[in-house]
């Protein structure tokens, strides 16, 4: 506790932006269905789709001192990602901190705890994925750490990993695999276009995805 | 497990559409406050109000093979209704399946589990009521059944029952009672118009609904 | 049980309206981080920000008889606040009751239980903060009380206390402290304007809020 | 609502007692992994293993009037099974009702709500599986029904179905399948004895259950 | 925040001990079904039945500094009752604090948060009712208050109120009503003995409690 | 997916057994309050206190195929630790698997899902910490992996890490820090003995832990 790692590696911005364009569900599939945060992480407003480098914060329950410390470490394109050291729903973050983060190029916040001033944040278009919306305030009395490995909403996140977030939730892509995952995600997308057209035309997915033989083999009975 | 019932009876379309027009709260009252799914079943977007015949899916946790099977059985006006065989939040359904279902006349999905690609589903206006929004993918390895009786979010549903869903939640009307419930629901609505006008004019509901005598009898004290 | 207190004291309307303008997070801070209702109390639609005098209802589970009784006691500027005597998600309140309450000057409903007809309530702009949206109906068989002290979603509320509610949740301000809390809240707001401008200009909050010395003292290490 | 069905069919006592001896996990497997109540249904004390005929109660939230009505309908070997019409944790049942039920040959209670006086019930060895232990009392003001089909903790139960309950939870066996399920359960048990001995001797379950070939086929890699 | 009230009034010990003998369910009934803490408050071991004067602690999340402060204020016969200022499951209390509290005559702990070292506490027979068992430690950095009014697990508690706790949960009796509630509770108990005997002899509760007429009136149908 | 790592490093047995003797709360403190699994992980019976090397299993929801694979990899002194790839409460493990695991020297199971046959497991003294007790069975159709890094109940666990579990919950100690953490834990224990004696003798913890000065400095007021 009480450590701020100042220099972390980040993925290339082109890769990060490519992952944002693919979206959470596709990226999650493309990396073998790993890295997803828990389903309770919900966006404070609909329609945002972002990706960025994780600037991680490990914070004590009900204490947002480290958020202030973390904002100083932000680089343009980063996403703040906060994991409390024990379960907490307090509102660690509001419009003042968002103003500061946005001024420094931060793309959003992922927080396994609460957020407040959500009307202001929505108007500012500062996207947040959180466990709760809660006006409960925090103190500034106990140290945590910045840019250390954390577990956030059930997913292991290292500083500099790529975080992708949209209406479906949040996924973490390990930094060193980001380029490869992007490639796989884009391949999935290319492949889906043709299938979507066939399905829209009324073809049955059992045919489009060639599922009939295995169903028969598994013993499905039509009565 | 492993059965697809191909021919099920459905209610008349006029009855189904009539029930949609009444909405969930009224229909639920009209059938004696039964058949409601649990309150955790929430729409992915607000404003949809639909009814349709239940095409039921009993699926293993984390396995959406049977959804593909079910879509082939869809008739125009149906609603897909999925109950997992044990509690699950995985995203069984996304934009490809929605494209296929919509192409075949499906009016929506009710799923006691998760859904993904909700931004696309919202743009397509394919309504879904679900327990979770979750990008977590599924496999296609284990059989379930289609058009068998299920318990979905706490309500017993038989194939062909009428499902009504709106912003208040989801209710199941047994197929053989649908016409009678519609009648009762429409009677309730007719009755409410007059009362709403009196209340809007400032009359007290204790008078409008004649509640004063029983309150007195029960011993209510004004101090 | 079974008591209706008819005359309660209320805060001055100017104070109430001033608190609404400050919003929940600011008011909660201004009164020493007390009085907040639990984070599960969510608005049925976004964007409402209200304050009013609490007209409290203690009701049995699944029984809304007392809501009818309470509406007769409403004065313009009041907020209905319902706490069930045991945990309950039933829909105690719908469009008919909202029509009546709105006609009598009620500003909204805070209910540690369920609400229904939310599409209608949204169209009427009758704001509700609730634990659930649930079409499940209620009966009128068992007495409760009106304008007695209650605990609602974890907060103690006395009749006539000022309730402030917005997208961040709901906070209760004791009536006798309302004027003083308003003053503190307005002072906070005045103070924040300048800080927001400095943060928007890129200054670091560690400087704006003078946090560096205590961090150093606490032993934070930069590596 | 408001109906008491007095004559229901029950399974043969020998079948019921046979199912009790097999236990919940085995019976659940033997009937194709169906009929299980939700995992939140927990016994108030450990070690009881019972089976009996379901005497079903559909009760309003917070109202135990129908429990009194149901007890009059008990036959020796029955199990009381209560499903509230909306989610509720109130203590519907305590030591007085247990005294009465036990005097009439009732084997236990399964309740998707709360129970109280658990110290007394434990001393009496009157087993209960419930969603909650909660001292919250109930009223006797609103009718429900006895011996109607219900959904209890996610499982559909008809009056006279066989309920099996032990430390693993609660399962419902449809009355008309009870004899057949017992046979299948006993066959499973016979089969397990030999396997248990081989596993206890250190043999690997991959061999005992012949799982290696399919693993290889599915592509499992050892590194 | 940051206040310790040193002199509080307490109920008479004879009244307190009388309430313990009646138990939670009876006391709760005797005071009109009020004052019960939420059902998630569970004992760390079964069989304890205690009552004592509430020594209240309002503590920040994850910070047990005030517990140390509170223990100095203990008088023999007191119960420590802790409410965090926002929801928290951390283990505020373990065997060292229990040793100290027990040495000073404390009868137990009621905590709307977590506790740890439960094996030791069980061996010491120091009873605890808590929301969680959790080894997560706490800090000593932020002030709270001792002997101020709190809301604990949904119940309003004033310092010096009588807390009664057993296997059924926890109930709070306002100090000034304690003697009167005891009287009502003892009357209930006296009344129950005769009824229990009649029920044990096989009489139907519908007769013992004279419930048949109202059932008939309410329209119950036997079929 | 679909990988079994056969050779993993483990900590020394003396270190592992030393950590077991210290218990979860002490070990968790000794490693800086990290590595704790969520509070919902509860033992199926009280009184077990174990430590062992983590043999990790990443398994699909509702599929226990990999548990069979993992058991073959067990060495004496290991603990099976299972994390499902999406949230699941199914009973992956029962008495047959426990018989096999115990025969191979396994000390227990930590599973972020369900377990069944708990009566048998209790009699066998095979300890399990789980999220649920649930008779729901699993299939053997989809691959997972063995001995890969997992996140289990909110904690990151690598194969070979030391798992300590007792009535307070479960903590993970990274293998390479195990010896050092043991030393710190034993130092804590040595230190506590003296303090416990002073507290038992009635000394105030504010003195025993020298907390008075900082309280004064922080502004605590006694009134």
Characterize the quaternary organization of these chains. homohexamer
**Morphology call of chain A:** elongated
Structural class of chain A: alpha/beta
* Radius of gyration based on Cα positions of chain A: 20 Å
Biggest interface between chains: A-B, 38 and 35 residues
How many helical elements of chain A?
A: 8
Helix-strand sequence of chain A:
EHHEEHEHEHEEEEEEHHHE
Descriptive account of the structure:
6 copies of one chain form a homohexamer. Helix content of chain A is 34%, strand content 25%. Chain A contains 8 helices and 12 strands. In chain A, strands 2, 3, 4, 5, 6, 7, 10 and 11 form an 8-stranded mixed beta sheet that branches. In chain A, α1 (13-22) runs parallel beside α6. At the A-B interface, α2, α6, α8 and β12 of A face β1, α3, α4 and α5 of B.
Put the structure in a nutshell:
With 223 residues, chain A is of the alpha/beta class. Chain A is 34% helix and 25% strand.
Which helices and strands appear, and what pairs or packs with what?
The structure is a homohexamer of 223-residue chains.
Chain A: E1 3-4, H1 13-22, H2 24-30, E2 42-43, E3 50-59, H3 65-72, E4 78-84, H4 95-103, E5 108-115, H5 118-124, E6 128-133, E7 145-146, E8 150-152, E9 155-157, E10 162-166, E11 169-173, H6 178-200, H7 205-208, H8 212-218, E12 221-222
Parallel strand pairs in A: 3-4, 4-5, 5-6
Antiparallel strand pairs in A: 2-6, 3-7, 3-10, 8-9, 10-11
Helix pairs in contact in A: 1-6, 2-6
């Amino acid at each position: 506790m009480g450590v701020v790692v100042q220099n972390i590696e980040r993925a290339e911005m082109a890769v990060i932006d490519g992952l944002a364009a693919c979206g959470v569900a596709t990226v999650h599939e493309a990396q073998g269905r790993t890295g997803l945060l828990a389903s309770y992480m919900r966006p404070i407003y609909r329609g945002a789709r972002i990706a960025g480098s994780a600037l991680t914060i490990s914070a004590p329950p009900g204490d947002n001192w480290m958020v202030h410390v973390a904002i100083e470490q932000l680089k343009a394109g980063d996403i703040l990602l906060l994991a409390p050291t024990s379960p907490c729903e307090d509102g660690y973050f509001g419009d003042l901190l968002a103003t500061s983060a946005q001024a420094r190029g931060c793309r959003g916040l992922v927080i396994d705890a609460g957020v407040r001033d959500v009307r202001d944040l929505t108007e500012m278009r500062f996207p947040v994925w959180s466990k709760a919306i809660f006006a409960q305030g925090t103190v500034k009395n106990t140290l945590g750490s910045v840019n250390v490995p954390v577990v956030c909403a059930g997913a292991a996140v290292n500083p500099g990993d790529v975080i992708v977030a949209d209406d479906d939730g949040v996924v973490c892509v390990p930094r060193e695999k980001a380029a490869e995952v992007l490639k796989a995600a884009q391949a999935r997308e290319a492949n889906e276009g043709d299938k979507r057209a066939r399905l829209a035309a009324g073809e049955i997915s059992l045919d489009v995805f060639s599922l009939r033989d295995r169903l028969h083999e598994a013993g499905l009975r039509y009565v």
